[in-house]
Amino acid sequence: MRGSRLVVCLVASVSALVIAGCSSGGGTEDLNGMTRQPRTEVGNVSLPNENPKSRNSEGALKGSGDGLMLVYFGFTNCPDVCPTTLADLRLALEDLDPEQRGRLEVGMVTVDPERDTGEVLNGYLSFFFPEDQFSSLRTTDEAELARVEKVFGASHRIGKKQKDGSYDVDHSALLYAVDSDGVVEVEWPFGTTAADMRSDIEQLLDQRAGRSGS
Q: Where are the domains positioned within the chain?
């Protein structure tokens, strides 16, 4: 449980920093998550997508059309924070109507690529989401992963390996909703409820539909 405690402490620290730079203005005053002012722009960053349906193409970390990508940095051996966050997100998406669900994609970036092979990551995500709704984003290039994390404001640290080969992984635990322009519309810290995420997603999708229809 040592790694779990470290993750929770890091999450608290990151959340405090995010709140300090956030505002509820700009037409998103009803959102339950956190919005930065100015908004974080992730541009056209991409990582290899190891979901078989992607045919090993590069996966852009942003939504498409009038949709959103919900981006998360985590790892499959995470004891509690990652599975809890993804389970809450699954519940949030299940309560959306089919048209809205079709405009969403979940992108998980593994921060532990040594253990999280493409096969492992795909199997893990398929427990939470349909195969055609997620991207398994993985790189073994530490510098590439660090560049993507920096753009989002995410971070992780791999602990020292123990004699049995195990090690702890500390990581920030924010979930990001990114539109097709590469703008982070909202960030949800660990502990955000499924109902709050669903409400935010519905509002953001309605706003994007309104813009595209105007």
A: 2-213
pTM for the predicted model, two decimal places: 0.86
φ, ψ of residue 71 to 5 degrees: the values are: -100, 135
* Dist CA 202 CA 197 (whole Å): 9
- Single-letter amino acid code for the residue at 205: L
Grouping H, G, I as helix, E, B as strand and the rest as coil, residue 157 is strand
Q: Collapsing DSSP states into helix, strand and coil, what is residue 9?
A: helix
Report the distance separating Cα 189 and Cα 32, nearest Å.
10
Please report the beta strands in 34-87, taking only residues with DSSP state E, as ranges in sequence order. Answer: 46-48, 58-60, 68-74
> Is the peptide bond preceding residue 113 cis, with omega within 30 degrees of 0?
no
What confidence category does residue 2 fall into, taking pLDDT thresholds of 50, 70 and 90? very low
Contact 67, 180 (CB under 8 A): yes
Which H/E stretch holds residue 139? none
- Collapse the DSSP code of 183 into the 3-class scheme (helix H, G, I; strand E, B; otherwise coil) and give the result: strand
Per-residue pLDDT band for 212 (boundaries 50, 70, 90) equals low
Residue in the structure block whose two tokens are 């349906």:
53
- 133, amino acid identity: Q
Give me 76's structure tokens: 């499959």
Cα gap 20→64, rounded to integer Å: 30
Question: CATH topology for 2-213?
Answer: Glutaredoxin (3.40.30)
